[in-house]
Structures are given as structure tokens and as C-alpha cells.
Design goal:
By secondary structure, the protein is an alpha/beta fold. It has 21 helices and 10 strands. The strands form 2 sheets. Strands 6-7-8-3-9-10 form a 6-stranded mixed beta sheet, sandwiched between helices. A 4-stranded antiparallel beta sheet has the order 2-1-4-5, covered by helices on one side. A hairpin with a 2-residue loop joins strand 4 and strand 5.
């Protein structure tokens, strides 16, 4: 149960509603207890009439009175049961909502290495399937637990007061039922855990297959994927069938033991009635109703144990992620204004997951409002520099400073809200083009959206779609071409109007003419803004105030375009190669 202690804060939050729900539960069960005794009285009226102990009119009046009381008690019990469910089950939904938000908020705090270690399908399963199992503990388990406790406390003493012998024999099979259900529940717990783990695997496979459907089709891997799905489906079928076979014992056992209890009531009660130890056949009918009222709560004891076990297993999986400490921590509570100067002081960085040292003793300074281009071969560390500026990672050694302040001492929200980033892999959401651009500025007007789209040279493409800016994009923006996705991402960064722009090879899928037009527009748009442009093309760098050339995590060359052209090295060779290719 220690894993479920995490939910105590939510129980405290909704304690009043839970208390009301518990009180309503008790009232509902008390009204339910009224009915068997009046069924007994009704049968006694019939018995008395057949023995001529009462007159026909009196018998009819008493029967009508008792029937109305039974109906009234049933209606009130049903009404309070409805209120009970509305109260306690609603609380479980509130807790489910809060827990999902807590998990999602925590996911957002975790750094990129966490997402490299964990599969998307598993993350999704924990926030959906596992939270669903926990909700059963926070709602139905409490509700049925209180029902069971109330009936046990009220009904069992009442049964022994009225007819101890019948009570003893009628209750005899119920502990056996509870023990059997408990044993079944233990097996259910183990097998349902396997099913949960399988669902995580299936979610991951499905998510990756749907996201990469274009690659699958391009390589003609449909039949291979179908085979893998069939294997997964068979594995899931086997595990689900194993669980279903155990679940199948639940209700038959319950019905069997209910029947045995009723047989005991009829046999023992019948003998006592014949021997004159009980005064009325109505007592037998009353106890049959009592047994049927108790059977489900007794069975529930085992079922509740199963719910608690499954909830604990799910909460344990959830806690594994909630206990994951974010490596990037916001050490400054107060907002910190960002102007835009950046300095790297002897910075080195090694990726923990791959142990690759991406940067080795890098030092440079960018003044506020400067445009700096970073060039180099693949794997030279260009993108890593941008990630460190956005503090997606912390340096392994050295210091990154923004406005002459160590980056760790800045408010993380202030820092990132001051950055407009266009990643190498342009990611767009499954929403309209308009909303994807507005992601950079939620209150942006239509005029602002159109303006930045024109600056990113994507406005004409958008207007070519039938729904224009209201076109819904597919998964990861699959509706658009690679170049269009990059340009929409640029528009999203421009509309934010931040102090620092980070463009990570964001024109790689654009033709040279469009690139030239975008660069000219960017030169005006980022005027007096600190801008870093990562690229493989010299054309993206030649108008920069400063150029850094990286190789193997080190600065190979730095200076202006003209300075580097006058020096022999990677930049000069790249420039003339690309110039020659362009002329050809």
C-alpha cells in the first residue's frame, strides 16, 4: 500500500466530498436493510390470515402498508445509491484528472535524455491505462468498501439477534467465498500486470508504425509489419485469455456459494420452523434476502483486494516516472529579463546516453544583436551549442553565460520564453496551420500570422490549399512537404519576436532561390536580435556578423565571411565547392 500513499494528498483535497459520499452510503444501506424485515412481516400477515387470526380487510390493509414501505425503502435506497455514486465516483474522476495533469506536468520538466531512454508508447500507457487502474481504487474501491463495511456492521449482528442458528449456517460459506475470490484475485493481479505491460509494448509499436507509415510504405514493409502485428496480437490474445480464464471463475463461484447459503437457510430454517423454534416462515424469506444482500459484499472483499493490488502495481509504474528527478532545475524563482549576449567559457559536453563528447573546450562570445553562423560537418557539435543555449542540457564542464550571468542562475521560464527556436527536425502538431504558427504567440492576430508566413515565404503555399490557414495537418505535419514544414516552423519562431533566435539547419529542405528570399527577410526580421544560424550552406552564413566553423567538437575557425575566405581551411573549401556547384 505504500505506493498508493501518493494519492493521500488528493484524498485530503476532496475530503469533504468523500465524507458526504460515505455518509450517503451508510444511509443507502440502512434503507436497504428495512426491506427484508417488512417482507417477513408481509408473509406473517398471510400466515395469520390463513390461520384466521386476522380478518381479510385488516390483512389487505397491512399488506398494502408493508408493500408501500418496501417500495418506499427501495426507492430511497436507490436514490441515495445514485447520490453515492455521483459523489464518490465523481471524486475518483477529479483525482484521475489531477493525477493525469501531475504526470503530464512532470513529463514536461524532464530533460531530453529521459525521452531517449523511454518509449513514447510506455509514457502514454502510464498516463492512460495505469491512471485508469488507480481511479478504480480512488472511487469504486472506496464506495464498495464502505457498502461492505456498513452491511457487515449492521446486518450480521441483526441476523444473530433474530435467529443465531440460521445466521451461523447461512454465513458459513461466505468466508470460503471471500478466500476463494482473494486467491483468484492474486492470480488476476499477476496476469493483469502482464496484460498492462503488453499494452505498453502494443502502444509503442502502434505509435511508431502510424508515425512512420510513409517510411513503411516507401520500403514496402507492410507484410513484415503485418507479421509483427500478428505476433503481438497472438501474444496479447494468450495473455488476455489467461486472464479471462481466471476471471471466468469469479461469478460461477459466487453463484455456487450463494446457492449453498440459501440451501442452508431453507433446510435449517425449515427444520426450526417444523420444530417450532422459529415462529414464522417469513424468517426464512427474510434470511434468504439477507444472504443475497451479503453475498456481493463478501465477494467484493476479494474483488477489492484485486483492485487495490492492480492499483498499487499501476501506481508503482507511475511513481517510477514521478520520482524521476529533472536534471535541468529552475534555481531562480524570480523572472530574469534577457537581452541576448551569449558567452561560452571553456565548455565541454558529453551525452550520457551515448558517452559521445560533442563539444571540447569551446569558447566564444556573441554580443547582443549579433548574427552568428555555425558551420561544420555532421556530428561536429553544431546543434549541441543551440541545445546548451536553450538549456535543454547542462554543460559537463565550463560555463555558459547569458548577459554575463551563468545560465543556471537565470529563471528557466524567462530564458526559454526569450528564445525562438527552429529545430533541425521541424515538428508540427496535428492542428491547423494557423494554430501551428500561433503556437509561438497564442494571442496573435490574423494579420500577424499572415505577415510572418510571408516572411517565411510560405504564405503562397498555404493559400494554395482549399482551406488555406485552416488546413488540418496530419501526424507531425505530414500534409506538408519538408520545405513547407521548415518554413511554417520559421514563421512560428518569428511571430514570437524573442530576444534570441536559434535556427538549426532549418533551410536544408528549401531550394536555393527560396533560401535566398527567406534569408533576406530574416535579415530584416531579426535586426537587433541575437541570432544563431546552424547550416551546411555558406549562403546561410555569408551575411553573418561572425562565423564559427566546428570540427570534432572544437572550433576550427572563426571570423567574418571575408576573413575566412582569405584563410585556407574548411570554410574556404566549402565556399568554393558550393559556388562551383551553383554555377554548374
Amino acid at each position: 500500500m505504500k505506493e498508493l500513499r501518493h494519492l493521500n494528498k488528493y484524498f485530503k483535497k476532496y475530503w469533504f466530498k468523500l465524507l458526504i459520499g460515505i455518509l450517503i452510503t451508510i444511509v443507502a444501506r440502512i434503507f436497504q436493510l428495512v426491506m427484508p424485515s417488512f417482507v417477513k412481516k408481509s408473509i406473517e400477515v398471510v400466515e395469520n390470515y390463513t390461520r384466521n387470526d386476522i380478518t381479510e380487510p385488516l390483512a389487505k390493509d397491512l399488506l398494502l402498508e408493508y408493500i408501500l414501505i418496501i417500495i418506499g425503502a427501495a426507492l430511497l435506497s436507490g436514490f441515495f445509491t445514485f447520490l453515492m455514486r455521483q459523489t464518490i465516483i465523481n471524486v475518483s474522476r477529479y483525482i484521475e484528472f489531477d493525477l493525469k495533469n501531475e504526470i503530464f506536468d512532470h513529463y514536461q520538466l524532464l530533460n531530453l535524455s529521459f525521452y531517449k531512454r523511454n518509449r513514447t508508447g510506455d509514457l502514454m500507457n502510464r498516463i492512460s491505462e495505469d491512471v485508469g487502474q488507480v481511479r478504480l481504487y480512488a472511487g469504486p474501491a472506496i464506495m464498495y468498501g464502505m457498502q461492505t463495511l456498513t452491511l457487515f456492521v449492521c446486518l450480521i449482528p441483526l441476523m444473530f439477534i433474530k435467529a443465531p442458528t440460521i445466521a451461523f449456517y447461512s454465513l458459513l460459506p461466505l468466508p470460503i467465498l471471500s478466500v476463494l475470490i482473494y486467491q483468484i484475485s492474486k492470480i488476476i493481479h499477476k496476469r493483469s500486470t502482464k496484460v498492462q505491460e503488453y499494452l505498453s509494448t502494443l502502444s509503442t509499436f502502434a505509435q511508431e508504425s502510424f508515425s512512420g507509415v510513409s517510411v513503411i510504405k516507401a520500403y514496402g514493409l507492410e507484410s513484415q509489419l503485418n507479421t509483427e502485428v500478428e505476433l503481438l496480437a497472438n501474444e496479447g490474445k494468450t495473455k488476455s485469455m489467461d486472464l479471462a480464464k481466471v476471471n471466468a471463475w469469479f461469478f460461477p463461484l459466487m453463484i455456487l456459494l450463494i446457492g449453498i447459503s440459501n440451501i442452508f437457510v431453507i433446510y435449517i430454517g425449515g427444520k426450526q420452523y417444523i420444530n417450532g423454534e422459529i415462529a414464522s416462515v417469513g424468517t426464512i424469506a427474510e434470511f434468504i434476502l439477507y444472504v443475497n444482500m451479503l453475498t456481493w459484499p463478501v465477494a467484493i472483499v476479494g474483488w477489492l483486494t484485486s483492485i487495490v493490488q492492480r492499483a498499487e502495481a499501476s501506481q508503482k509504474r507511475i511513481n517510477e516516472f514521478l520520482q524521476e528527478e529533472p536534471e535541468i532545475k529552475n534555481t531562480c524563482i524570480e523572472p530574469t529579463p534577457i537581452k541576448g549576449s551569449i558567452e561560452f567559457k571553456d565548455v565541454s559536453f558529453t551525452y550520457e546516453d551515448t558517452n559521445i563528447t560533442a563539444l571540447k573546450h569551446i569558447s566564444f562570445r556573441i554580443e547582443e544583436g549579433e548574427t552568428v553562423a555555425i558551420l561544420g560537418k555532421t556530428g561536429s557539435g553544431k546543434s549541441t551549442i543551440l541545445d546548451l543555449i536553450a538549456r535543454l542540457y547542462d554543460v559537463s564542464s565550463g560555463e555558459v553565460e547569458i548577459d554575463d550571468t551563468p545560465i543556471k542562475e537565470l529563471n528557466l521560464d524567462s530564458l526559454r520564453s526569450s528564445i525562438g527556436a527552429v529545430p533541425q527536425d521541424a515538428f508540427l502538431f496535428s492542428d491547423t496551420i494557423k494554430n501551428n504558427i500561433k503556437f509561438g504567440k497564442e494571442d496573435a492576430s490574423d494579420q500577424e500570422i499572415i505577415s510572418v508566413a510571408k516572411q517565411a515565404v510560405v504564405h503562397e503555399n498555404i493559400m494554395g490549399f482549399s482551406k488555406k490557414y485552416h488546413t488540418i495537418l496530419g501526424e507531425r505535419g505530414i500534409t506538408l512537404s519538408g520545405g513547407q514544414k521548415q518554413r511554417v516552423s520559421i514563421a512560428r519562431a518569428l511571430i514570437k519576436d524573442p530576444e534570441i533566435f536559434l535556427f538549426d539547419d532549418c533551410l536544408s529542405a528549401v531550394d536555393t532561390e527560396t533560401e535566398e528570399e527567406i534569408l533576406n527577410n530574416l535579415k530584416k526580421a531579426v535586426h537587433k536580435k541575437t541570432t544563431l544560424i546552424v547550416s551546411h550552406r555558406v549562403s546561410s552564413a555569408k551575411n553573418a556578423d561572425k562565423i564559427l566553423v566546428l570540427e570534432d567538437g572544437k572550433i576550427l575557425q572563426q571570423g567574418t565571411h571575408n576573413d575566412l575566405i582569405s584563410q585556407n581551411g574548411y570554410y574556404k573549401e566549402l565556399y568554393f565547392n558550393q559556388l562551383s556547384t551553383k554555377e554548374n
